[in-house]
């Protein structure tokens, strides 16, 4: 966007602004390492809503010409600001300046923001204006008593407004369905149905992601139990599926119960009983079961001992009972 004229050197009732002071302000402006001045709507020290906090553009750089006119290069101007200026809802532009050099001559004045105004244009009588500003007059008000922030305001010219939009168009809001014709109502209902379908799709995708996350978490948990010999490999998929269908309270109790079991099968090839089971098992029972599993592995040409154990358990679970 072309540059905007936001300030001019001159002698004002509140103080003198010679060209060298304006140049110091322009030179001090550093949006990369200091405050980047926003373009805002209205003078607000604090925003009462999220929208009022938004900037409607950013001052990328400023420059001064030989007459002391200060221009601002404003980028990223919002459509809201463009439309409001083009429709003449905002008629004034105000430069907000930190007059830091008033308290400390070693410091330079700094551009704080440029504000576009409608109803809250500073009201100052002609006798208080003094020297004309851009041949239109200047309004000045401090932001607060004893504050270093000053505001200099002027009315936007026709040329200024042309920078925003040559052919402004009135914004249109979505009409209420009960104020429309039947055709408009049908169109409104179709648009609403489309939005509801989008929401339903988003909900389904979100549910699918949650389900996938639950399955991944359960798979990781029971993999540890299986590899630790507390879960028969043949039961792994069924246990994972069952786990993901439970609510969080039942899931926690179910996992605690399984975790309390002793080691049933060591996938390295050793059948291990708990101390209680060992008392009831005949000597060599574990070796006998391991031998049956290895024989079954060889007979069925299975690749691993754990795969053979799972298949044999599924075929003849009684072999894994106590006393076998």
Explain what this protein looks like in three dimensions.
- The longest helix is centred in the middle third of the chain and has 46 residues, at 182-227.
- With 324 residues, the chain is an alpha+beta fold.
- The chain has 11 helices and 12 strands.
- Helix 6 packs across helix 7 and helix 10 crosses helix 11 (305-315).
- A 5-stranded mixed β-sheet has the order 4-8-7-10-9, with helices on one face. A 3-stranded antiparallel β-sheet has the order 1-6-5.
Key descriptive features of the protein:
alpha+beta; 18% strand; 324 residues; elongated; five-stranded mixed beta sheet; 12 strands; three-stranded antiparallel beta sheet
Concise structural overview:
The protein has 324 residues and is α+β, with helices and mostly antiparallel strands. It is 41% helix and 18% strand.
Helix content: 40-55%
Sheet with the most strands?
A: 5 strands, mixed
Gyration radius (Cα, Å) is 39 Å
Average of the residue pLDDT scores: 76
Q: How many DSSP E strands? A: 12
- Catalogue the unreliable spans: 123-146, 269-284
- Beta-strand proportion: 15-25%
Element pattern in H and E:
EEEHEHEEHEEHEEHHHHEEHHH
Secondary structure tally, helices? 11
